[in-house]
Write a structure and sequence with these properties.
Elements (H helix, E strand, L loop, with lengths): L8 H9 L3 H13 L7 H12 L4 H13 L7 H12 L4 H13 L7 H13 L3 H13 L7 H12 L4 H13 L7 H12 L4 H37 L1
Helix pairs in contact: 1-2, 2-3, 3-4, 4-5, 5-6, 6-7, 7-8, 8-9, 9-10, 10-11, 11-12
Length: 238
C-alpha cells in the first residue's frame, strides 16, 4: 500500500541512495529483472538487503527468494526462511506462502505440515492463489486438517478463478466425481478445458478421457442408424 513512483531511473537511484526503503526495493527489482538497467543479481541483493534491514516487508520477501533460488547469493534455505518469516509476520501474503512451502518441504526449517497449513491459510485469506490451491489439497486429502471436500472446493475455486491451472483441474475433478459439490459433468469439462488451455497435462488427459467416453456412449446409436436406413431402403426397392 502507498507504494511510491519515480519519474526516471536516476530519481529512483537517488531516492535509494538517500535511504528510501521503497526506492531501494524497487531498484533491487530493476536489477533482478533487468528493467532499465543491466541485469545484476548481486546488485539486486544489495538493494533488497538495505531495504529489508529497514523492515520493508516486500524487500524481505524478495531477499528470501534470492536465498531460496540462489540468485546473487549462495542458495541458503535457512536464510530464505529467516527473511520470509520477517515479511510473513508483517502479513506479506507472498512471504507467508513461501514460508509455508519451506515448512511443507522441510527446506531451511524442520518439516512441519501444521505450520505449512497455518501460513498457507494466512496467505490464502489474503487472496494468494497458490496458497489457496495448496490449502485446497490439504483439505481434500485430510492431511493435518480434517478431510473436508466442501472446504477443498472453496479454495480450489478461488485459485481457479485466478487462473491457477492445477486448481482448475482439481475443481473439475470435484465436479466430475461429486466431491464437495453436486456432480456436474458440464462444469467439470469447463474447468478441464480452462486448465488444459494452460498446458495442464492432467486436465488434458481428463478431457481426452471424457471425449473418448462420450464417443463410445453414442457409438451404438451411430451403428444402428445406418442399419435402419439400409432396411428402409430395401423395403422401398421391394
Amino acid at each position: 500500500m502507498n507504494r511510491q513512483t519515480w519519474q526516471n531511473f536516476e530519481d529512483l537511484r537517488k531516492a535509494a541512495e538517500q535511504g528510501g526503503t521503497q526506492a531501494q526495493c524497487h531498484l533491487g527489482v530493476c536489477y533482478q529483472t533487468g528493467q532499465g538497467v543491466q541485469q545484476d543479481y548481486q546488485e539486486a541483493v544489495k538493494w533488497f538487503r538495505k531495504a529489508a534491514e529497514q523492515n520493508d516487508s516486500v524487500a524481505q520477501c524478495y531477499l528470501g527468494f534470492c536465498y531460496q533460488a540462489g540468485l546473487g547469493v549462495p542458495q541458503e534455505y535457512g536464510q530464505a526462511a529467516k527473511w520470509f518469516r520477517e515479511a510473513a509476520e508483517q502479513n506479506d501474503p507472498a512471504a507467508q506462502f513461501n514460508l509455508g512451502v519451506l515448512y511443507e518441504t522441510g527446506q531451511g526449517v524442520p518439516q512441519n505440515y501444521a505450520e505449512a497449513v497455518k501460513w498457507y491459510h494466512a496467505a490464502a485469506e489474503q487472496g494468494e492463489p497458490q496458497a489457496q490451491f495448496n490449502l485446497g489439497v490439504f483439505y481434500e486429502q485430510g492431511h493435518v486438517v480434517p478431510q473436508n471436500f466442501e472446504e477443498a472446493v472453496k479454495w480450489y475455486r478461488l485459485a481457479a478463478e485466478q487462473e491457477v491451472a492445477p486448481a482448475q483441474c482439481n475443481l473439475g475433478l470435484c465436479y466430475q466425481t461429486g466431491r464437495g459439490v453436486e456432480q456436474n459433468t458440464q462444469e467439470a469439462v469447463k474447468w478441464f478445458i480452462r486448465a488444459a488451455r494452460q498446458g495442464d497435462k492432467t486436465a488434458q488427459h481428463n478431457l481426452g478421457v471424457h471425449y473418448a467416453t462420450s464417443e463410445e456412449a453414442y457409438a451404438p446409436e451411430a451403428r444402428e442408424a445406418p442399419e435402419a436406413a439400409s432396411e428402409e431402403a430395401s423395403e422401398e426397392v421391394d
